[in-house]
Amino acid sequence: MAWIATAYLLAYTAFQSLYGRFSDIIGLKTMYLDASVIFLIGSIGCGAASSMIMLNIFRAVQGIGGAGLLSIMMIMVSVMFDDINERARYQTLGYLAFGISGICGPLLGGVFVEHSTWRWCFYMNIPIGLFVVLLVSKFYQIPFERTETLQKKLRRVNYFGVLITIGAVLCLLLPLNWGGTAYAWNSAVIISLFCVMGVLIIILVFVEQRAAEPIIPMYLFLNREVALLVTVNFLTGVIFNGCGFYIPLYFQVVQGTSVTDSGLRLMPAVLGAVFSTGSSGFLLAKAKDYRRFITLGAATLTLSIGLFILLDEHTSLAKQLIFVLIMGLGQGFIYQNCVLACQDCTEAKDMVVATGFVVFINSIGNAVGVAVCAAVINNSLTSNLAKLSESSQAVFRELNVIENINVIFTLPEGLKAEVVHAYALAFRTLFTILTPMIGLGFVLSLFVRRRGSLARKE
Description:
- Residues 1-453 form the Major facilitator superfamily (MFS) profile domain.
- It is a multi-pass membrane protein.
- The protein folds into 3 domains: 1-151, MFS general substrate transporter like domains (Growth Hormone, Chain: A, Up-down Bundle); 158-212, no CATH class; 216-458, MFS general substrate transporter like domains (Growth Hormone, Chain: A), CATH 1.20.1250.
- The protein is built from 19 helices and no strands.
- It has helices at residues 2-16, 18-26, 28-47, 52-80, 84-115, 120-123, 125-139, 150-156, 159-178, 188-209, 224-253, 259-265, 267-287, 290-308, 317-344, 351-386, 390-399, 413-445, 453-456.
- The mean pLDDT is 84.
């Protein structure tokens, strides 16, 4: 079952960096329509799947298409509006749409699973996707100018770099997903994959520096502001996505909520992110400084993760929801403004690739965040359970309370309290580790300078 999510995540992240460069070559409209069609094919295949293997394969197809939908949308808006203030307002509308879908999607999925069939979780994408394809085909009329024929540009594509990029990402994500579950972190498989990743990155740097059409231009890393911003965005992805995966686990195990209720308790984060994204987008014209929002977001996110350290078995529902809301507010201030800042700090010829690069790094952060949180929770929980009596440990090992949380609620009250407290302490350890990580993001945000259009308007 885990591969249903993992297949999508692997494909989504691996192909994320490619859409920016290919949009420069083939055109934004064509690439967006291609991504939409690939996503629709994946959705149809998932809905019609007759086996887990088929479902996983088409989930990967979905991920390949989904990788282009958000990043190309942001690039399309960027090309339409040269003024950063106007661009911010319209990109905000796109983020609001994603935020609303983040609320409605899981709720609709739950309704389909409970009252119809899980297949409609995928079939529902078909009418929506077709409608989007028709809208973009008819109304997006920004001309695409080619200085060379398509055949000549395609011949200049660094296909070797494409393969190395995909391979390096997979060699990072596979051990992050397998480590501590399918294989031990010190196993030969995990260590070998990380070593191969390191070798591929070295080869990628060498190849991209000599490519006519590099997938990830290496000189972007020499841009001080871009380097700082993608690092902040990476850390935000680590923290927000990691917490988004594991805070519901806290609700379920420590607070004893249902799966549905744990998801609903995470909704304040989505609402907070929608609010802060929307407000910062419309206030940028008055503030005239995206750095303020990035720094405010990093400070707010640091505060929220620090407050999570206070969570235990006795924390009230009001505090839980407030802490989650603050987390969402912080994330919303950071993500969009990091994208806008990177666009504003790069030359016009690099804006498309830079936008795709920022989204790609955030996706890597998302994957790393889940793996880091899983490793910390599992290791801390194992350590906490080892401190209990031998009789309690024997019961917990037999029932495998780390992997099977449902058995916790079938335990006698005394044993149940011990496990719940062990989980609570594990989450406290997790948030204690995550707080300085996002705190580093706050510190780095203080060194970002304005180098683009907003700096020229001073």
